[in-house]
Amino acid sequence: MTAVETVPLRGDLPLPLADVIIFEQTARYQGWLWTRGPDGRWRLETVFDGEGFKEYTAKHY
Questions:
Q1: Mean pLDDT along residues 25-38
Q2: What is the rounded CA–CA span in Å between residue 25 and residue 12?
Q3: What does the domain layout of the chain look like in residue ranges?
């Protein structure tokens, strides 16, 4: 995952979350999904590549 941009969405939440900021982060996702077969060997299930977003919170002091 590579972050493209991070934007604070909110920082004015009521108590008990008054010191929390919610961020949204646009990102580029790339990777591989592997599964283990019945024989115990790893096999490539799929490759993914695309754009999306995630949200996270952080306390500010």
A1: 92
A2: 19
A3: 1-31+48-61
